[in-house]
Amino acid sequence: MTRKYKFGIVGCGVIAPHHAESILATNNGELTAVCDIIEERAVEFAKKYKVEQYYTDYKKMIDEADVDIVCVCTPSGTHGEISVYAANAKKHLVVEKPIEITKEKMDEIIEAVNRNQVKMNSVFQIRTQPALIETKKAIDQGTFGDIILADAYLKTYRSQAYYDSAGWRGTWELDGGGALMNQGIHGVDILLWLAGDVESVFARAGAQARDIEVEDTAVAMVKFKNGAFGVIEGTTSVYPGQPKIFEIHGKKGSVVIKEEAIEVWKVEGNEEEKAPEVKIQRDDTANDPTKFSKVSHQVLMEDIMDAIENDRSTLIPPEEGRKSVDLILAIYESAKIGKEVRL
Length: 343
Ligand SMILES: NC(=O)c1ccc[n+]([C@@H]2O[C@H](COP(=O)([O-])OP(=O)(O)OC[C@H]3O[C@@H](n4cnc5c(N)ncnc54)[C@H](O)[C@@H]3O)[C@@H](O)[C@H]2O)c1
Known about the structure:
It contains ten helices and 14 strands. It is α/β, with parallel strands linked by helices. The chain folds into two domains: 5-125 and 294-317, Rossmann fold, CATH 3.40.50.720; 127-288 and 324-342, Dihydrodipicolinate Reductase, domain 2, CATH 3.30.360. The strands form two sheets. The chain has an eight-stranded mixed β-sheet. α2 links the parallel β2 (29-35) and β3. The mean pLDDT is 96. The site of nicotinamide-adenine-dinucleotide has 24 residues, from loops.
């Protein structure tokens, strides 16, 4: 890379240290500004990562600070306004999942990113895990044949105290949903990435165990555009949280991924076909949202700098980032009206 890239982080809460530390771990990234509407948080965060400039107003940070790339780490329902403002100021973006919680806001982000010709990575860091990259490659090459069944089991544990720890958690207005829109969305994104786009969905969703507005448990039966069927189960209310499981079955064979490891990789009539050996990073986001390796965020930071440098698309542009949100919104709609919803 020919130059250094300056990053600014908006929102200094739970996920922000993953951004700061992964930026600092890159060769070309520098953290030059941070912002939080709670001043002490911005001050503390700036001190911890030795950043000179801190702000309490993201517009001021974007207008005044010397930054090339803005990391949006605020509550989900605020990502749109911040991302659009930053894109209009010609800043590149790394936006936490979900990129937004409504179709209108996602449309606005995509329009602003494209009109201003800036780059954006949507933070679905699980896509960078070696087991999933190899699985995606094999599925696309037809190793397992045409997909007939593709399932995601996304069972996590979040206590009532977790939901009470920040006012926006578990609200329609700022979280945009619960077990699926916040935690399960990573797995929904992976299922779509591996098995393709969805045609229609029939779902149930509700708060079974927690005192929250949004769902803590959801089940959905999906039909993919390629004709495959599938099931998505998402919850934040099972103790203990379980490893994420993806089960993809094609006409020729199956692949099963449990958290970050390949459990099954079989092709009928071809005993030579072996699962690729991959490096495994042990995560436990099933029980704690911060328990995952920072390496995957770092891959997305390196990627956006390289995308700017070489004027290419990022690994997860906003058009990709929105797909899981569109599906989850359809799941909520189906659960509400009690009917199948087409996407
Ligand atoms: N990639 C992942 O695995 C992962 C994990 C956790 C959270 N997240 C996502 O990160 C985002 C933040 O989640 P969190 O758990 O860190 O939340 P948090 O509540 O811990 O932190 C959010 C911070 O943003 C600040 N803030 C709110 N509005 C602001 C504004 N307009 N300008 C500046 N600061 C503002 C708050 O004061 C708070 O400090 C969410 O979208 C969440 O879905 C992603």
